[in-house]
Amino acid sequence: MGLLNALEKKETRLVIGLMSGTSADGMDAVLAEISGSGLGTKVRTLGFVSLPYSDPVRSEILRLASGDAGGSRDLARFHFWLGQFSLEACLAVCAAAGISPASIDLVGSHGQTLYHQPSAETYLGRPVRATLQLGEPSVICEGLGCPVVSDFRVRDLAAGGQGAPLVPYAEYLLYRRENETVGLQNVGGIGNLTVLPAGGKPEDTFAFDTGPGNMVMDQIVEIASGGAQRFDPDGSLAAAGAVSGPLLSFMLQDPYLKKKPPKTTGREAYGVEYVAVLMAKSQELGLSLEDLLATATRFTAECVRAAVRDFCPVKPDCLVVGGGGCRNAALMRDLRALLLGIPVLTNEDLGLDSDAKEAVAFAVLANECVCGHANNLVSVTGASHPVVMGKISI
């Protein structure tokens, strides 16, 4: 524990944050200089890289994440494979920032979520809640020679929480304002909303998953193109189509939209089975690919509108959109049209990097962990009490 005590006493720490999301596009790595902890946390980003997964790797991730595939051999091998890839991402971001890997003090690694079941289901005769993120941290630790914090979600889940969303804690530390209520809408594979009430305390923060982000749109493009494309560049295909009223009405019947927070969702709800139903209905309605994408894009925006309208006791004065979705012009157009009266911005409008935001969050969560600070928000996850999330490999 002497190493952790020395690390906590440092005025500034060089911390790498790693994130691989539900879109399974690749590994994001940020190198940040973090000073202080808790409410005094200050972050300066020194470098960011995103290493894409090859098509076979992405296919394997999606296969394992389907919930009914794999087995102990495949899971164990992927666990160590992703640990090696995570180490490569750490070395790549060090090179991009011009920092020696030997200088790194700490790594926060989210890993890859392969299964997330926050609600109890009967298994072997008892109710069980479960989550699984893989990416062996010992491989990173061995390669860099510094502590690695990983497997964040399980401690919150054990305390009765949803194990998600986790980013709002870091958002509170970095984005809160005294005189303005800030809404932060991430649009990755899944969409999630955080609202930071003006001058609020950590427990005043509320956040939850809004529903699908890019996941449904991306799968439609990938299936329709036979795997030649993974997403709709800039939303250009959706912009060329027209929203289908009947299909949108069907999608808006999704019970998740009416479920009260705390709530979280993922590929288990909006994966291949969900998209297969949408594509079948699209064919019945005689829709073009562009019309289908326009409708799926509008649905993502409608999910955000429903979240703000139905579950935000304090409405945001502005909404800052991050994640890959902020580069989708059709989605941003829909959000601005549906959220009248609320300025819709991007992280870039604030001088920040939308791509690096979630990786920064896991650098901050790791920093809080080694400093012994509870780093979940019970108002967000529904946990019974604050906990220190993360397992430390030394």
Structural commentary:
The chain has 394 residues and is of the alpha/beta class. The protein folds into 2 domains: 2-167 and 356-393, Nucleotidyltransferase, domain 5 (2-Layer Sandwich), CATH 3.30.420.40; 174-350, Nucleotidyltransferase, domain 5 (2-Layer Sandwich). It is 40% helix and 23% strand. It has helices at residues 2-9, 55-64, 72-97, 137-144, 153-158, 167-175, 215-224, 236-239, 245-251, 267-270, 272-284, 289-311, 329-338, 357-370, 378-381, and strands at residues 12-20, 26-35, 42-52, 106-123, 126-134, 148-150, 182-187, 190-196, 206-212, 318-322, 344-346, 391-393. Strands 1, 2, 3, 4, 5, 6 and 12 form a 7-stranded mixed beta sheet that branches. Strands 9-8-7-10-11 form a 5-stranded mixed beta sheet, with helices on both faces. The protein is globular.
List keywords for this structure.
alpha/beta; 7-stranded mixed β-sheet; 5-stranded mixed β-sheet; Nucleotidyltransferase, domain 5
Outline the secondary-structure elements.
Elements lengths: L1 H8 L2 E9 L5 E10 L6 E11 L2 H10 L7 H26 L8 E18 L2 E9 L2 H8 L3 E3 L2 H6 L8 H9 L6 E6 L2 E7 L9 E7 L2 H10 L11 H4 L5 H7 L15 H4 L1 H13 L4 H23 L6 E5 L6 H10 L5 E3 L10 H14 L7 H4 L9 E3 L1
Parallel strand pairs: 1-4, 4-6, 7-10, 10-11
Antiparallel strand pairs: 1-2, 2-3, 4-5, 6-12, 7-8, 8-9
Q: Characterize the largest beta sheet: strand count, sense, and whether it forms a barrel.
A: 7 strands, mixed
CATH homologous superfamily name of the largest domain?
Answer: ATPase, nucleotide binding domain
Query: How far apart are the termini?
Result: 9 Å
Under the CATH scheme, which class of the largest domain?
Answer: Alpha Beta
Structural class of the secondary structure composition?
A: alpha/beta
| Inertia-based shape | globular
Strand content: 15-25%
| CATH architectural designation of the largest domain | 2-Layer Sandwich
